[in-house]
Amino acid sequence: MSESQAWDEAAKRMVRELGGEPSCGECIYFQAEPVSQFPFRSKDSERQGTCRRHSPVAACHDHVSRTAYSVFPLVLEIDWCGEFLPREER
Q1: What is the C-alpha to C-alpha distance for residues 33 and 31, in angstroms, rounded to an integer?
Q2: How far apart are CA 64 and CA 70, in angstroms?
Q3: Would you kindly state where each structural domain of the chain is located, as residue ranges?
Q4: Predicted structure pTM score
Q5: What sign for the dihedral angle of Cα 12, 18, 22, 26?
Q6: 25-36 pLDDT, tens per residue?
Q7: Burial classification of residue 47, based on how many CB atoms lie within 10 Å of its CB (0-12 exposed, 13-18 middle, 19 or more buried)
């Protein structure tokens, strides 16, 4: 078993033990954000936020004003990826 597979198995085991689902809304890297921050709409019952796993990335360059900015990836609480880490109980 590779190191990556071992980490995946450990994460899945932690999720099962904590009784959570491996989704963004249950991940330590998820930060909920106001709905006004999002260019898309989802069901009112779904929280929206950003993933803080990695540094923000360049999102746009305005050729007129010569400005650029960066953002964290926008996600829904029901999204998921392969780098899930469960939140610790508080």
Answers
A1: 6
A2: 17
A3: 3-76
A4: 0.62
A5: negative
A6: 889 999 998 766
A7: middle
